[in-house]
Write a structure and sequence with these properties.
Blueprint lengths: L7 H12 L5 H8 L3 H13 L19 E9 L4 H13 L3 E6 L6 E7 L2 H12 L5 E8 L12 H11 L1
Antiparallel strand pairs: 1-3, 1-4, 2-3
Helix pairs in contact: 1-2, 2-3
Length: about 170
């Protein structure tokens, strides 16, 4: 939760888990400088408060045959809340859509899509996305290469802000 104040140990726990979510509680406790039982209590508290939403493997899509990544910029005909929510519900149910972000400005949503090949993405584009209710236009950009893909938050900035506030 955004309003919850975290102490330095909580922030260090989050930073360590963000870098390696598979480490044991004993190793995590060692890295943050506390014993294992309070470390486990803190991790559980961070999970319950929503600071930790889950644990995931960082999978290389290309190694699994998903060669195509596309960003689709979607403009809707109506921006009434019910229409925005209806589009979000559709996006949640499209397997090729891996991320959906509502934006301000000319584009209403940007979708990050992953597909095994261009024909599969083209079918999704024509049969699902552009055919969806309230979709006025879709512009797509094919990813050539990814230069950076960092999950989570930049804890270096958080630590800097905490030091400045002290």
């Amino acid at each position: 939760m955004a309003g919850t104040r975290l102490d330095e140990i909580d922030r260090r726990i989050l930073a360590e888990l963000q870098a390696d979510g598979r480490m044991t509680n004993v190793e995590l406790a060692r890295r943050v400088g506390i014993s294992a039982p309070p470390c486990l209590r803190r991790v559980r508290g961070l999970e319950e408060s929503g600071h930790i939403r889950g644990y995931h493997a960082d999978i290389d899509p290309r190694e699994l045959g998903f060669e195509v990544q596309v960003f689709a910029m979607v403009r809707l005909a109506s921006q009434h809340e019910r229409d925005l929510s209806a589009f979000e519900d559709l996006a949640r149910n499209w397997p090729l859509v891996r991320e959906c972000h509502m934006l301000n400005g000319e584009i209403d949503f940007i979708l990050k899509c992953t597909s095994p090949d261009l024909p599969t993405f083209q079918r999704f584009l024509t049969e699902s996305l552009t055919a969806a209710p309230n979709v006025a236009s879709v512009k797509t950009s094919l990813v050539i290469r990814c230069s950076k893909d960092e999950p989570g938050v930049p804890f270096e900035i958080v630590e800097e802000r905490v030091r400045e506030a002290s």
